[in-house]
Recover the amino acids of this structure.
C-alpha cells in the first residue's frame, strides 16, 4: 500500500458558512453538528424538486444557504444549481447530477455522494469531512475542500484542480485537504495536486499520472 504524507504547516482557512466567508478550519471543533442549524432541513425533497423544475439555463436553481441536512436527494438533477453555503450534512446525494454546481462554502459533512456527477463543479472552501464519494465523477472540478477522512474509492478526478489557491493568501492557504482519506483506485489523470494535504491518505492502485502529482519535493509518497 502506498501512503502519501505531506506536512506543509498550517492546514489553512476554510469558509464555514455563507455568513462566515472565511474562518480557520480549527473552528470546526466549536461547531455543533447536531444543532438544528447543521442537522435539520427547511425544505423537503418535493420542495427541492419544485425548485429544479422552475429553474432555467439562465436562472439555475438557487438553494444558497438553505438547510438541507439529512434529506434524501439521490438521483436529482442539480446541474448548475447554486448551493453556496448550503447545509447538506449527512444528506444523500447518490447518483445525483451536480455538474457545474456551485458548492462553495457548503457543508457536506458525512454526505453520501456515491456515483454522483460533479464535473466542473466549484467546491471552494467546503466542509466535506467523512463524506462518501465512491465512484463519483469530479472531472474538471475546482476543489479546495476539507475532505479529511472521506472515501473516494474509484472516484474520477481527471483534470480536477485541487491545488492551493495562491490568489487568496490573505485568507490562509486555501487547498484541498485529504488527510486520512481513502483514494484507492481513484483516477487522478491530469489532476493538479500541488500543495494538497495527503497525510496518511490511502493511495493504493490508483492512477498517478497527475499533472503535478505532489507539487513539492518534500511531499513524497511513503510505502507501508
Amino acid at each position: 500500500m502506498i501512503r502519501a504524507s505531506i506536512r506543509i504547516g498550517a492546514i489553512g482557512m476554510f469558509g464555514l458558512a455563507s455568513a462566515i466567508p472565511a474562518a480557520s478550519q480549527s473552528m470546526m471543533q466549536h461547531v455543533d453538528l447536531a444543532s438544528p442549524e447543521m442537522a435539520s432541513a427547511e425544505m423537503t425533497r418535493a420542495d427541492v424538486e419544485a425548485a429544479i423544475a422552475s429553474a432555467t439555463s439562465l436562472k439555475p436553481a438557487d438553494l444558497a444557504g438553505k438547510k438541507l441536512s439529512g434529506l434524501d436527494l439521490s438521483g436529482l438533477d442539480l446541474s448548475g444549481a447554486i448551493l453556496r453555503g448550503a447545509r447538506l450534512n449527512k444528506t444523500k446525494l447518490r447518483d445525483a447530477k451536480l455538474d457545474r454546481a456551485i458548492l462553495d462554502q457548503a457543508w457536506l459533512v458525512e454526505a453520501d455522494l456515491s456515483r454522483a456527477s460533479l464535473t466542473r463543479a466549484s467546491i471552494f472552501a467546503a466542509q466535506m469531512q467523512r463524506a462518501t464519494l465512491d465512484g463519483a465523477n469530479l472531472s474538471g472540478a475546482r476543489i479546495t475542500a476539507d475532505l479529511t477522512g472521506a472515501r473516494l474509492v474509484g472516484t474520477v478526478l481527471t483534470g480536477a484542480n485541487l491545488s492551493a489557491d495562491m490568489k487568496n493568501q490573505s485568507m490562509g492557504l486555501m487547498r484541498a485537504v485529504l488527510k486520512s482519506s481513502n483514494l484507492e483506485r481513484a483516477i487522478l489523470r491530469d489532476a493538479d495536486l500541488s500543495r494538497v494535504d495527503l497525510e496518511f491518505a490511502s493511495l493504493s492502485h490508483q492512477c498517478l499520472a497527475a499533472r503535478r502529482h505532489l507539487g513539492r519535493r518534500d511531499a513524497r509518497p511513503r510505502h507501508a
Notes: Residues 1-25, 216-224 have pLDDT under 50 and may be disordered. The longest helix spans residues 45-53. Residues 1-224 form a domain with the Pectate Lyase C-like fold (CATH 2.160.20.80). DSSP finds two helices and seven strands in the chain.
